[in-house]
Amino acid sequence: MPASLKFKKILLKLSGESLTGEKEFGIDAEVLNRFACEVEKAHRLGVQIAIVLGGGNIFRGLSEKAKEMDRVQADYMGMLATIINSLALQDVLEKKNIQTRVMTAIEMRKIAEPFIRRRAIRHLEKNRIVIFAGGTGNPYFTTDTAAVLRAIEIEADVIIKGTRVDGVYSDDPEKVQDALMFDKISYMEVVNRGLKVMDSTAITLSMDNKLPIVVFNFNIEDNLVRLLQGEAIGTIVQE
User: Fold this and answer.
1) Nearest of 80, 145, 88, 68 to residue 108 by alpha carbon
2) Closest to 211 measured CA to CA, from 140, 149, 127, 142
3) Using CA atoms, how far apart are residues 23 and 119, in angstroms rounded to an integer?
4) If you ran DSSP here, which 8-state letter would residue 179 be given?
5) Long-range contacts of 70-74 (CB under 8 A, 24+ apart)
6) What does each C-alpha distance from 119 to 73, 86, 111, 112, 152 come to in angstroms?
7) The predicted structure's pLDDT at residue 68
8) Considering the entire predicted model, what is its pTM?
9) Phi, psi (rounded to 5 degrees) for 167
10) Alpha-carbon distance 129 to 124, whole Å?
11) What pLDDT is attached to residue 59?
């Protein structure tokens, strides 16, 4: 890894909803390709990259659609949605000649590898991008929590959460015009203020394991590369 890079190994967390683009649901091929291009640029720098995608563009266990369903059943459906998104991203990345592995918490051996920690680390060492799908494999846990768990397991330097806003704000910047953006904020302040960085389980798990979280705008071209090269992009959540 070039000495100028800030992080050696990252876990990139993206929401499923971000893949819809202007659509109401599903996957926008143009958006997916744009995301893959940003990941490709980061990969070319020599950074080890793992990715967790949400499934909210297809189905989410806590959505209005799932309100009348059994929560466990709905959560499993959401996990399957993350696998669909992961396979779609894998396809686009491999068309760019980037070796990619999808590893699932729910075994589906015909389409993806089961998650095995040591194997995941080995894939990363071999310069493959690893996409973790299926959440934690358990209901009641979000993909935010799954992302933090996998980041800890692979000993990532940081978890980077791509959003459509520039960082963490005091209020929703899309609704409150004078919302204040933080350059740096502590885990406890995120919890105490009720800021929607990640769910409280994910934040607590990050805090207990001293895993920093960077929240940034993934829709701005080259933002990920600039962040990895040490520019002050987004908000960092740490102690």
Assistant:
1) 80
2) 149
3) 36
4) P
5) 71/139, 71/140, 72/139, 72/140
6) 29, 18, 17, 13, 15
7) 83
8) 0.94
9) 175, -150
10) 6
11) 85
Distances (CA, A) of 112 to 40, 59, 97, 175: 21, 20, 18, 40
pLDDT along the chain (239 residues), means of 10: 80 93 88 96 97 91 76 92 97 97 96 97 98 96 96 98 94 89 96 92 96 96 96 95
Q: What is the pLDDT of residue 140?
A: 93
Q: Which of 212, 213, 222 shows the shortest CA–CA distance to 44? A: 222
Q: Which helix (H) or strand (E) holds 24?
A: none
Domains and CATH numbers, the chain: 9-237 (3.40.1160.10)
- End-to-end distance of the chain based on CA atoms, in angstroms? 26
In the structure encoding, which two tokens stand for residue 69, read together? Answer: 């369903």
**CA dist., res. 149 & res. 165, Å (int):** 24
